[in-house]
Design goal:
Blueprint (H helix, E strand, L loop, with lengths): L16 E5 L3 H7 L4 H22 L3 E8 L7 H24 L3 E5 L7 H14 L6 E8 L1 H16 L4
Parallel strand pairs: 1-2, 2-4, 3-4
Helix pairs in contact: 1-2, 2-3, 3-4
């Protein structure tokens, strides 16, 4: 199903890139008397819908801030659930995204993620790297403080005299 642009929206004024911070999913579930994990599942459904609308409306890029470095402080069972959910979604959705021409990318420090999730991430990037549709970027294990430290380290590395 293709979602038509509402008549009161000017296609010339639509952004080319949209970014979404996935925040409040656990609170959404809790407010409805559901476990926090149900809120995370609902967040996946919402992102799937946003991705579809972006594609249908001609928006070229969607970035989703999905899991920050601060999220590691959540209860271990919730972090484990989020990692498993992430992997499950990638396995389930990648064929659909590939068929729709979506190109998926990841930013952030992926080395701290479970190895099986890292493998699925790599597979999804390779499987969609030639696609020319919407660019779907997932920020994972990212953080402002971490990015500043990494940028300073990279600059310091470049400034070191060669041996």
């Amino acid at each position: 199903m293709v979602h038509s642009l509402p008549v009161d929206l000017d296609p010339q004024k639509l952004p080319k890139h949209i970014a979404v911070i996935m925040d409040g999913n656990g609170r959404w579930g809790k407010q409805r008397g559901l476990p926090r994990i149900m809120g995370h599942q609902k967040g996946v459904d919402t992102i799937r819908n946003i991705l579809t609308y972006c594609q249908d409306w001609g928006i070229n890029a969607l970035t989703v801030y999905a899991f920050s470095t601060e999220n590691w402080r959540r209860p271990p069972t919730e972090v484990e659930f989020l990692m498993a959910l992430f992997e499950k979604v990638l396995c389930r959705e990648i064929k659909i995204w590939a068929q729709k021409g979506i190109q998926i990318r990841f930013v952030g420090d992926l080395t701290s993620l479970p190895y099986s999730l890292q493998e699925e991430i790599q597979k999804s990037v390779v499987q969609t790297e030639q696609n020319t549709g919407i660019q779907f970027t997932v920020a994972t294990n990212y953080g402002g403080r971490q990015e500043l430290v990494q940028a300073c380290q990279a600059i310091a590395q470049k400034l070191q005299p060669e041996k």
